[in-house]
């Protein structure tokens, strides 16, 4: 049993939804109105030793840092229904392994909006070679003979090629630029990497 005390906010930020349900024991806490701990529109307090079973996480708002040239940055809260379309700025920080990518992003066979990555070095794999700087996306997570790996899809001249890469494969992997537009809700639900900040440009402000 894990015995490490932390705030509920810190716990939920670091939580992998795949690990749910999780049971927590209250050490102390009086949670004020308007916080992430508000229940049924009023303040709530818990008694020491009470147990909470976390069965799901629902994001209702975002804390956003606004940055403009020549002015100080400011932090605001935004509702997921905030009007406007956003374009993602590719993260310049590399991922150190395929495992780190898998832990950070959603993996899906659906190509629309699926993040793509590149490596400055060639990837020599059983099925062939992914060339340096060639973009690829992760489409499935599998286990074979006790080893976990992912399927990587590369598109060449309108034909798709599938490569198998072990999660333990290390290197420098960078996020590719994304030219699609997303609502704030779409960013939260399937575009924001876990454990990293997501930088975006607002492209169409409708309010």
Automatic annotation (TrEMBL):
- What range(s) does the CABIT domain occupy? 20-201
In this record, what's one Pfam family?
Answer: CABIT
Recorded GO cellular component terms are: cytoplasm; nucleus
Q: Which GO terms describe its biological process?
A: T cell receptor signaling pathway
Q: Matching InterPro entries, A to Z?
A: CABIT_dom (IPR025946), THEMIS (IPR039671)
Recorded family membership: Belongs to the themis family.
What protein name does the entry list? C6orf190
């Amino acid at each position: 049993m894990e015995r490490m005390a932390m705030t509920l906010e810190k716990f939920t930020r670091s939580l992998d939804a795949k690990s749910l349900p999780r049971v927590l024991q209250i050490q102390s806490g009086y949670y004020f109105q308007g916080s992430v701990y508000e229940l049924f529109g009023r303040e709530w307090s818990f008694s020491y030793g009470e147990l909470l079973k976390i069965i799901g996480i629902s994001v209702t708002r975002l804390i956003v840092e606004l940055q403009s040239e020549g002015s100080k940055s400011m932090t605001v809260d935004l509702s997921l229904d905030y009007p406007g379309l956003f374009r993602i700025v590719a993260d310049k920080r590399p991922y150190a392994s395929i495992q780190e990518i898998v832990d950070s992003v959603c993996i899906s066979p659906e190509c629309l909006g699926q993040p793509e990555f590149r490596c400055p070095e060639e990837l020599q794999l059983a099925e062939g070679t992914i060339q340096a700087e060639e973009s690829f996306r992760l489409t499935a997570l599998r286990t074979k003979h006790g080893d976990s790996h992912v399927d990587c899809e590369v598109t060449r001249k309108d034909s798709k090629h599938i490569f198998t890469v072990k999660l333990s494969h290390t290197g420098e992997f960078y996020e590719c630029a994304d030219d699609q537009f997303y609502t704030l809700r779409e960013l939260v639900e399937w575009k924001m990497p876990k454990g990293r900040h997501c930088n975006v440009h607002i492209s169409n402000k409708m309010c």
